[in-house]
Design a protein that fits this description.
This is Cytochrome c, mono-and diheme variants. The protein has 18 helices and 11 strands. By secondary structure, it is mostly helical. Among the domains are: about 35-160 and about 170-180; about 315-445, Cytochrome c-like domain (Cytochrome Bc1 Complex, Chain D, domain 2), CATH 1.10.760.10. The strands form 5 sheets. Strands 1-2-3 form a 3-stranded antiparallel sheet, with no helix packed on it. It has a two-stranded antiparallel ribbon with strand order 4-5. Strand 10 and strand 11 (about 405) form a beta hairpin.
Length: about 450
């Protein structure tokens, strides 16, 4: 039987009116309070969801790495960026209203992140990667801002930059931007999959991989050789284009994802230095779906041969194990040079063999926490010994989702000559024999 909707609503109102006469006022007040509480809880839940999303995005963008010099004061700035023309220090981005970003409006914050402009109109230096963040959406930037509002404020000013003339003239950044900065939001490619577009956004905008892995021009702007590898001080950020010799064309998707998540691709590479920090602070927190999207996108960028340096095989394809234990044991100690430096074989046996194995094949197999093999290792098979030298000097510290991976630093144990001798033995025996280093260069890298 059909019921007239208007009549039904009228009856419902009448019944509710009668109920109002019968219910005590206190009960009605309580029902109103309950309804208000539900509305507040819904709003609070939305805020919590926004903050959680902002935390995820801030990790994807690795904000903490550049804005934290003291782990006890996260996001309080003060991280030095040593450039050819001086040192720049990162800013405090805690909610402190004097030294941080507590007084910035949302529009001010978006302008700083995406356009490289401070509240007072000054241009930011491109140590802040606004050249990549310009692609970010409003929603993502404001989600990050919502998360940063929950950080404990730190009343601490960042150290003053120490740049020489004319680089200390911020107005000159107008001309730098003219040649090196194109403002614009990410535009999805309708001809590509949603996964590809997500990967392009993550790699190019949020994770800003090109800021480390792309060679720079004479003005320190990004060149057109995107992701072809670059020098970061004493570290080399390797070529991550699909080139099979210079880049990662020989890596599987599973290996790329494992490296981003754990810092380890067995038989390929182990993250150290700046990349270990990226894994620790950023990529290990990304979802499997986002890591897969990044791998999908990286497969499609234009391949670049920069970094091959005439090699006929990729960095991870070098090396053979020591075949006989007698090559290490029961041999007379050979001392090199007037300084009395032991030969590389002796230094390796004394300092490396206990963890990496006397054959150099590592201990622990393919486990993410294994002591890595020195064979088929990108740092040992590279065309220069810079990264290997930095690892020997400063060790490795990499926090992952499965534990803390560490290697001791030998800077305080071995002299420049000893480290050079050891590194040259390791590259010759286990990697690319053309990669050598001098004691003088080791001294400069300390």
């Amino acid at each position: 039987m059909k019921t007239n909707n208007t009549t039904t609503r009228q009856r419902q109102r009448q019944r509710f009116g009668a109920l109002r006469k019968w219910l005590p006022a206190s009960a009605l007040a309580l029902s109103g309070l309950f309804a208000g509480t539900l509305a507040y809880a819904a709003g609070d839940s939305a805020d919590a969801a926004l903050v959680k999303r902002g935390e995820y995005l801030a990790r994807a963008a690795d904000c903490i790495a550049c804005h934290t010099s003291n782990k006890a004061q996260p996001y309080a700035g003060g991280v030095p960026f040593d450039l050819p023309f001086g040192t720049i220090y990162s800013t405090n981005i805690t909610p402190d209203k004097t030294y941080g970003i507590g007084n910035l409006s949302d529009a001010d914050f978006i302008s700083a992140v995406r356009e490289g402009k401070s509240k007072d109109g000054k241009r930011l230096y491109p140590a802040m990667p606004y050249t990549s963040y310009t692609q970010l959406t409003d929603d993502d930037i404001l989600a990050i801002r919502a998360y940063l509002r929950t950080i404990a404020p730190v009343a601490k000013a960042a150290p003053a930059n120490t740049l020489g003339f004319p680089f200390n003239q911020r107005w000159a950044m107008v001309f730098w931007n003219l040649f090196n900065f194109d403002s614009g939001r990410f535009e999805p490619d309708p001809a590509k999959s949603a996964e590809w577009n997500r990967g392009a956004y993550l790699v190019g905008a949020l994770a800003h991989c090109q800021e480390c892995h792309t060679p720079r021009n004479f003005m320190q702007g990004l060149s057109d050789k995107s992701l072809a590898g670059a020098q970061l001080g004493n570290w080399t950020a390797y070529n991550i284009t699909p080139d099979r010799i210079a880049g990662i064309g020989g890596w599987s998707d599973a290996e790329l994802i494992a490296y981003l998540r754990d810092g380890v691709a067995p038989g390929k590479a182990n993250a150290a230095g700046p990349m270990a920090e990226v894994v620790e602070n950023s990529t290990r927190f990304l979802s499997d779906r986002d890591l897969e999207a990044m791998a999908t996108y990286l497969r499609t960028v234009p391949a670049q041969s920069i970094g091959a340096n005439g090699a006929n095989r990729p960095r991870y394809a070098w090396g053979s194990p020591i075949q006989s234990v007698t090559a290490l044991r029961n041999q007379p100690l050979t001392v090199l040079g007037a300084g009395g430096v032991a030969d590389g074989r002796t230094l390796f046996n004394a300092n490396c063999a206990s963890c990496h194995g006397w054959q150099g094949t590592g201990v622990g197999g393919k486990d993410s926490g294994a002591y890595p093999s020195l064979l088929h290792n990108t740092s040992v098979g590279a065309s220069n010994a810079d990264n290997l030298t930095m690892v020997v000097l400063h060790g490795v510290s990499r926090q992952t989702n499965t534990g803390h991976m560490a290697m001791p630093a030998f800077a305080g144990e071995l002299s420049d000559s000893e480290i050079a001798t050891l590194v040259n033995f390791v590259t010759t025996q286990f990697g690319n024999p053309s990669a050598t280093i001098t004691a003088d260069k080791v001294g400069k890298m300390r």
